[in-house]
Amino acid sequence: MRKVAIIGIGITPFRARYLDKTYFELAYDATKLALDDANKNGANITHKDLESTVYGIYNELFERQFMPDIFTNSYLGMNNKPGTRVATGGATGGYTVRMAYAEVASGLSDLCLCIGLEKCNDCYDEQTGVTTPEVLNAIAYSADMTYEYPMGMMAASSYVSMVNAHYEEFGNPTEEQMAYVSVKNHGNAMLNPKAQSPMEVTVEDVMNSRIICYPFKMLDCCLYSEASAALILAPEEKVKELGIEKPIWITGVAAANTDCFIGNREDMGRLYSNIFAAKAAYKMASLDYDKIKQQIDLAELHDAFSGQEVISYEELGFVPFGQGGPWIEKSFEKPGEGPWLDGELPCCPCGGLIGCGHAVGATGIMSTGEAALQLRGEAGQHQVKTIEHGRAISHSIGGPGAAYAAVIVMANEDGVK
Amino acid sequence: MDEFQAHEIRDRIKIDYKYTYGGQSKFFIELMKNKKLLGTKCTNPKCGKAWMPPRINCSECYSPAEWVEMKQTGVIMVSTIVWYTTSAFIKAIPYGIGFIKLDGADTALLQGIFSENLVPSKIKKGRRVKAVFSKEREGKMTDFFFVPEDEYENWINKPEYEGGV
Questions:
Q1: Could you give the ipTM of this predicted complex?
Q2: I need a labelling partner for B70 at 20 to 30 A (CA). Which of A8, A163, A191, B111 fits?
Q3: pLDDT score of A19
Q4: What count of CB pairs under 8 Å joins A to B?
Q5: Which residues, 6 or more positions from A323, have their beta carbon under 8 angstroms from its beta carbon?
Q6: Could you tell me the CA-to-CA distances from A251 to A200, A287, A298, A335 in Å, in that order?
Q7: Closest to B77 (Cβ–Cβ): which among A136, A140, A268?
């Protein structure tokens, strides 16, 4: 396989609603931003140089269109070239990066556009006069329709099941420990001008926010968002030919689908998809699961719900099982410790989904792009202080019971040496 | 320049189905007609996995699975109480749901957990529950639910519900 680099990054602001854009207009904005970024980074390319596209689009019902990719393809001026859609729930972004990587690594394409888009808040619930219950319903149709949807299963009740089972087994994460994730990610978002939910919140604010699904409260949950995010991927020879100044190499890509029926799992408190994806991605990047915290500089995690971030610390190998909650709680306001922006391994420096919002198909591409910007030293106000190893990971999870997970390992020129 | 003005329309995507439950049909027919909860058991003696919800094929070992009647009692593996939800269920809040391992099953079934005192401790992991059935059944998952064993008699005495077999 060929070496593959991210050479262009384009992320639109994450917003509750774009009244002035359709999904394909948002995709155009992200593509243009990614091309501009590649050109600032040494290239001299237009959309006509892009040889293929991989589209990350989760939900047909959001877009009110069951083949949103082909209409986006037209709007992006990508006609008569291959374009393929990836749809894997909340993990759509990570899986889209994986397939775009494969497109370039295999030699099928030299320049590939990897783009995610989502526009959820055109859904509208007439009975309550707001969007969210209908957005949640559009997502709930991703549950098993025979046995589980009829029971009122939805994203939060699915994801809270693993958290409650994990709590039963390990005594964590406690509600307070989860609240620290909310404090961290809303706080990090205050430094990210593209974030939807920048907020200074305290543990008490989170604990006092309205109950959604026991024990998840409003501030434990991400908000659904509208946005697009695009990456341009190129092989090593193209990176040299174009004279790219700061290529960010994708050194590991892996994904795993675990059983989407939580009731079929041996241990319901686990995120099995995460550990399988992480171990395979680290191995591909020649990193060690047991030492990963000392080998990377930051992690953009998938914190759709605060509790999932805590369990991910464990599944991704940052801390032993049962230690995720204490890791964030005990490191609060202790620089150099824990997952905080100034901690030993900053997690979600951009604010994650809780801080930025969750534009489902775009999210994992945004987080991969954000990690790449960090490795370039170009993340802006939320830049982590020390890029010592030159390596970062992005992490996407999604689907019923977090059945899907993808982990991407990236490195700058120092990190691949 | 003119100020931007968005043009929004009301719309709905609507598809009707006459959906078949295929090989799983017997579960729903027996539920509707006889208040039985049928699972399946893998016929491979080396596997023998008991599936609930049922599968007519064993996904573990690729052998056929046969129908077996499950007990109507079980234990809560994990649960939650939902206070904010989708447009389809928002009128039902708060409601309890959880994964229940029926006695004899190897997998757990998602179901509603009803309680006269719907608090997390009442429906937590390890609590024993028993199935209660609607008198008017349509062959759907909503034909039954689980209640804590100590509330069973109260629930089956309500006019719209009855006990199982």
A1: 0.96
A2: A163
A3: 97
A4: 126
A5: A313, A314
A6: 35, 10, 15, 29
A7: A268
